[in-house]
Amino acid sequence: MSYLNLNGVSKGFRSASGGRTEVLHDAWLSMERGEFVAVVGFSGAGKTTLMNMVAGLATPDSGTVQLEGETITGPGPDRMLVFQNYSLLPWMTAFENVKLAVDQVFPQWDNKWRREHTENYLKMVSLGHAMDRKPSQLSGGMRQRVCVARALACEPRILLLDEPFGALDALTRGTLQDELMKIRSQDDRTILMITNDVDEAILVADRIIPLTAGPRATLGPSFTVDIERPRDRKEINHDSRFKKLRKDVNDFLLGSAADKRNPVKVPAKVPSFGGTPVGVSA
Amino acid sequence: MKKLFPFDWLVLPMVGIACAMLVWYGLSKTITPKVPTPLATWEECKVYVLEPFAKRSELDQGVLNFTRYSLVRVAKGFFLAVLIGVPTGFLLGMSPWFFKCFDLLFQILRPVSPLAWFPLGAALFTTFKQDALEYAALFTITVCAMWPTVLNTAVGVRAIPQDYLNVAKVLKLSAFQTLWKVMLPAVLPYMFTGFRLSLGIAWLVIVAAEMLTGNPGIGSFLNQEYLAGHYAPIIFCIIIIGVVGFILDRIMNVVERRFKTI
Ligand SMILES: Nc1ncnc2c1ncn2[C@@H]1O[C@H](COP(=O)(O)OP(=O)(O)OP(=O)(O)O)[C@@H](O)[C@H]1O
Ligand SMILES: [Mg+2]
After folding, report:
1. Which range of residues forms the domain containing residue B17?
2. B179 and B146 in one domain?
3. Which H or E run contains A9?
4. What residues does ligand 1 touch, defined as CB less than 6 Å away?
């Protein structure tokens, strides 16, 4: 039994026509404590659905999700999530957003301590200067940093990242990836991250698990990223292991899409070195 | 809108008002001689304006006195409408059960005229003897004015982004904290739109309500002058009611926009 286990998890939704579409089918995953695993998949494959079940926001139709041997039955801050969309409360400042979480998770601490804790995490994501700004006064990258700070400040047993940088431009995305790696080098938290960007996955994760194309998506084999840290985004591009891994993961994903009886639209050309995202993402 | 010339925002509305005065003057000089001209109206009614707080008798007072009575009545009715409307709206927006139970009923009650509610109010509060009519007036204002608050609050509750509620769930906020820290702030802009519309209706209803009670206020004053066949005060009252309604709407607009920024 590993730290986090998905045991044959399936989940379906009622479709518009009245029938049922099984979004996820028999997904298995095991993750060790301190591991950083990235799940890569097409847009609409069911990545958020998968994440919601680990977070406890949704329950599997069959199969179980277990953290440290306990079956997950509901949401909790020990599995704090960085949501795909901006999920900061817009009427609170960055500080207040993080403090709300800290107050909730550490009620036993005195208030001064909780304030300090909040500030520390905001400084960690280099937002010390913008703590008193409302989300509307922050850029997209800064908002997502606040979300990361909020999640880390909860000191979760596992940190869940659902396409945390998906809505950001390439440059900001790169900066945040670097920051994530830096934070991670100081704090060996267990992280499960979802992304639609294979390059991002290889850059930050220890292990990559592709999610096959939906419907009835399932988790594929695990690809270990045996590239030593710290990884540099520029140098890694020329690394042969990186190139091979990217090809393998992409081939697997595109193969899974072609296997479907009703294939989802696959880009006409297999993304070469330029094309990072698999599938058409938002 | 495009700026036409300096001070167009001030000059052009004045042109509009001048046009209306001209039509009014023309009518009173030709086909409706019973209606006094603008100047005659002013001559006859200036006593109410120049002594705004005078109290000559119950139904012969300065304009600000009458307006104040009416505003107090509207404030009470509006307050009750908000007090009932907000929780009802929350229930309607949150609970599919509540919605299915009461939506039809509300749709049926909503279009009922204040003139129809008033007699029911009078019947409901007969035990209060001399206060019965006053309570009936409040009842009428409340029942007619609460719908925009109910409906806008319900729409606002349904529009709360699922992401915010998920944050509350993951953080395990208590039901009270979720309501207070997440739902209420998210619904506030919608609620204030409802409040503004509700206040508009409350002010619309006040005239009818006061006509029926006869208790001092701008509506009963208007009614009394109508029964006495004085036309100038009627026109005067219409203008005052319009101006006060406009000011109320402006104030609510400012409040509403303050809360929109969140
Ligand atoms: N609550 C729901 N009710 C019905 N269908 C749903 C629900 N949630 C998700 N789905 C369907 O499940 C499928 C997977 O959705 P999901 O949000 O998990 O995809 P995703 O991989 O996260 O996509 P993206 O990359 O765009 O975020 C989609 O086809 C979606 O329409
Ligand atoms: Mg998603």
Report:
1. 1-35
2. yes
3. strand A4-14
4. A 13, 23, 41, 43-49, 84, 163, 196, 281-282
